[in-house]
Amino acid sequence: MARNLRALFGSNERVGADEAFTNREAQWRTVTDALAEHLARIGAPDFDIQDLEAPRHNVLVFHGVGGIGKTTLSRKLEAALAASEDRPAQWGEPTWPAAPRLLPIRIDLARSAGTDFEHLVLALRTALAGLDRPLPAFDLALGRYWEHNHPGEPLEDYLRRAGLAGRAGRALPGQLQAALGEAAQQLGLPGAIGSAAGQITTAAAVRAVRERRATARALAGCPRLADLLEAEPDLEALSYYPHLLAYEIDRLPAKKAVGPIVLLDTFEDTGDRTNRDLERLIQRVVWLMPNALFVVTGRSRLQWADPALQGQLDFTGPAAWPQLAAHIPTARADRAGTADPTGTGTAEPAGPGNQARTAVSRQILIGDFSPEDCEDYLTRRLTADGRPLIDDQLRRTITARSHGLPLYLDLAVLRFLEIRRTRTPEPADFEHDFPALLARTLQDLTPDERHVLRAASLLDAFDVPLATAAAGLDRQAAALRLIERPFVREHEAALWPYHLHAVVRSTIRRADDHTDDRWSLEDWQHAAARALDALGGQWTAGRDAGGRALLTGCLRQGLVLARDHRLGLGWLADAAWAYISDSVWEPIAPPAPAAFTGAGQASGHGPAGTAVLQTPADALVEALRTLAARQREHRTHTADRLTRVIDSRLLPADLTDLALYYRAKAHRDLGRTDASRQGMRQVAAGTTRLAPAARRGLAHLARLDGDFPTALAAAQNLGWAGRQHRVLGDLWWVHAEMDQAAAAYEAARTDAEHHGVAGEAATSQAQLAFVRAFTDPQAADDDLHLAEQLLAGLDLRATTLTTRIAALVRDAGTPGDTVPERADVLGAEVRASGVRAAEAALALAICFHHAVLDDPDNQSALAIAIRDLDHLTRGRDYAYYTDIATFMAGQELQFPSPARWYDGPDQVRDRWRTLVTARRTHLRL
Questions:
Q1: By mean pLDDT, which of 155-159, 506-510, 778-782 is the weakest?
Q2: Within a domain: 54
Q3: Domain boundary among 203, 233, 256
Q4: Beta strands in 412-490 (DSSP E)
Q5: Cβ atoms 501, 405 nearer than 8 A
Q6: How many CB atoms lie within 10 A of CB 275?
């Protein structure tokens, strides 16, 4: 295993510093599948090395963000293909045929490696020198090129300087000379002139190749050799010589046959989007050597299948490179082929001879390490006495921060060694971003691309127009180039399809940026303002067609920008009102801000995790977070958090009313009737959007007190804005006027659907199911089913509790049913919610169940249920529920509540008692 010299020399101790390698099993399977198909294709009877028009299938690309492990993968592939014993233990056995012998040739194209095109061609030929035989056609052309371009320079010296002077490299000059001598002999030229390529004149060689096919079979069998020899022996001609190399490989005898696998690493260093000279030459080599498999590793996808590059490259378009196209239909894994081994949505079709083969993408994004891979990497990277030097807790911290990026793990290891010199490293030491990671990310981007990247780092997700607007550019070219980079991930079905790799994003925003074009605090602030305006523009333009997803998406991102950068609310106020109008309550507020050195303006948190409210955005975030969280937490927390928002006095008047109204609702749910009434009156007296809702709230409070005439009078004028039909339904059912209540709830649901308010429709339907459960259990089944459908995707805790209580009412009195046990389980959830309306309704449902049972042995259970209900409501809201429970039991009221019934208690008693007897009759049938 290779040694990690940086780590080895990072400590005075003798630290185990093996180069850890995590499995990359999926990539290995992709290589083996591609190689098996390649070998089958070139071994087919109809394969023709001289066919220069057939599509090429001899390229496999692994691309990914800097530091993801591409070079390590390339090296491991080279070793595994060269010798089976060098294959990592995790990798499976190869699946290709035993012959021909594989010949891996790895060429590092990094600028630091100094690899130019001449070096690349010589590396290919040097690797083949191990065959111990000349390759006459290629060697004749190469010898002529060398004498013309390196007069007087021995090839041996060049190979030594270029690092190609291994055993095979030392053999190459002799093979070249032997080839030239053989060519002179076969071409019938004077023997002496075969000693140097320059002495074989072009005219004589070409004439001999064209005319003496019988005596120069090896040379004359290559129909394009004469043309290449006639051409000026410059770099352009050299780029066509690999055709001769492919020809020589193709005609090797069976015992000498090889299958070259050329691993081209660091491909991004071949040039950029405006300078493709070296890429053009390399692409030509790939095209002219279809019997070699090229495995390319680099930061970006190859664009060779893009027809727009015609003229910049020789061979372009999907017809030329069918497996490099940007979007290839996925091959189904059930078409008698293998399942997708890469996790990239591709699948290998059945055998290589299948003419109906489905195109399979050969451009594979190398993904991040899994947490298990990160753990394995850190465990084996540094050791002392055979044990991991980095302990479990530190490994977990580093893994979490890395988001699976190997470069981060590598930098964390070096940081560990640095800190360990003076003290024991702690988890807090790795809440850290590395400037080196930022430098690696930015190094090959243009200035405009870096500008867009920084702007995009402000956003959780983006599209090209949004990133361009945030960067303040008037052209999209830089954003279009940026989204092709491997650190930009794509999710086509998302509202905004692109997002940055998590570590890259956090590093750009938080690491100390020492680059020449780094942003100042003002630059970050201006970009955040532009991004917020752009989000607002997208929401405004698409609010009618974009639906709830666009609203919540814009709000989530906009709230972060406004809060973390102390921006004004602007369009966020209108969006907040649109958010609450549907009563859906999906989580919308962003998480607590982390430190941000880029803008340096993020809000913080106070004691015990409470948000510090310093700006209107802080207050709005806290208000919306509270409203969503109330569906999952006790109402006391809701009231307390909204009180902090109100007391901060940061919100404008209409949004302050929003906090006042929902705090009043929380007070009502908690049984704090006076406090609730005070808040409702304050909002109802104003002219904000919640004034009608507050008037509805006052009607509800009158109903809770049992003042039904007042509640009815208030309900008559509420209209749709005040949810008039639902308020009337709430009044009718307590009077046991179930048909009228059901009609009111149906009308309420219809109104809600007409106005597109999903939460109100679900709530009205749940109430409909509740009242129907008293009169028609079978119809209630259908109502509950519809309520569950309407609740799908909504976060309405109180409404969900209503449906579960309705299910108990539907089953009330059923012999052998587990209504009491179910009620006990549900009671714990109801009490945890702090919603008194649900608690009182559940107690009333239990009373109905025991009243229906009509069993003398059940009388004590009924008495206990009524007593529990009385304890829950006496002297408080819903006190009349005890009256209703007594009416159900057919008993006389000893201590009637102060309720003011529409038509007097006797009529109400009769109707409730009739519901009980009707259920008994139903159960007997």
A1: 506-510
A2: no
A3: 256
A4: 488-490
A5: yes
A6: 11
Task: Decide if 584 contacts 563 (C-beta within 8 A).
Answer: no
Distance CA 761, CA 752 (A): 5
What pLDDT sits at residue 358? Answer: 43
Phi and psi torsions of 688, nearest 5° = -75, 175
Token pair recorded at residue 791: 């609740």
Look up residue 402 and give its two tokens.
């890395």
- The reply to whether 113 falls in a domain is no
Do both 246 and 393 map to the same domain? no
Mean pLDDT of 758-770: 93
* SS3 per residue for 59-99: EEEEECCCCCCHHHHHHHHHHHHHCHHHCCCCCCCCCCCCC
Q: What distance lies between CA 656 and its chain's CA centroid? A: 36
- Closest alpha carbon to 841 in 794, 894, 877, 815: 877
Rg (CA), the chain: 39
Sign of CA dihedral 731, 733, 737, 741: positive
Residues 667 and 741 in one domain: no
Outline where 706-796 has alpha helix (H): 708-715, 724-734, 738-755, 758-775, 777-791
How far is 61 from 267, CA to CA, in rounded Å?
10
Alpha helices in 483-615 (DSSP H): 502-510, 521-564, 571-581
Rounded to whole angstroms, the maximal C-alpha distance in the chain is 134
Kindly write down the DSSP assignment for every residue of 353-381, as one continuous string.
Answer: T-TTPPP---EEE--PPPHHHHHHHHHHH
- Output the pLDDT for position 599: 43
Same structural domain, 584 and 707? no
pLDDT in tens, 225-249: 888 888 899 999 999 999 999 999 9
Phi and psi for 372 in degrees, rounded to 5?
Answer: -65, -40
Q: What is the pLDDT of residue 786?
A: 95
